[in-house]
Write a structure and sequence with these properties.
Number of strands: 0
Main location: membrane
Radius of gyration: 22 Å
Distance between the termini: 71 Å
Membrane topology: Single-pass membrane protein
Number of helices: 1
Subcellular location: Cell inner membrane
Largest sheet: none
InterPro entries: Haem_export_protD_CcmD (IPR007078)
Keywords: Cell inner membrane, Cell membrane, Cytochrome c-type biogenesis, Membrane, Transmembrane, Transmembrane helix, Transport
Low-confidence stretches: none
Helix content: 55-70%
Order of helices and strands: H
Structural class: mainly alpha
């Protein structure tokens, strides 16, 4: 079906799937970490510049 290069083709698809899966997992884990850090900063009273000033 895939010819003499079938193993190479399937191996490339497998490696690509693993890399894409690892990148997706990394993005999810990093996003949760950043969200947690932002929540901790906001709990301590640190606000984002884009939030504007409350006393004006």
């Amino acid at each position: 079906m895939l010819g003499e290069h079938g193993f190479f083709i399937l191996a490339c698809y497998g490696v690509s799937a693993l890399v894409l899966g690892a990148l997706a997992l990394w993005i999810i884990v990093d996003g949760r970490l950043v969200r947690r850090q932002l929540e901790e900063l906001e709990a301590r009273g640190v606000r984002r510049r884009s939030a504007g000033r409350a006393d004006t």
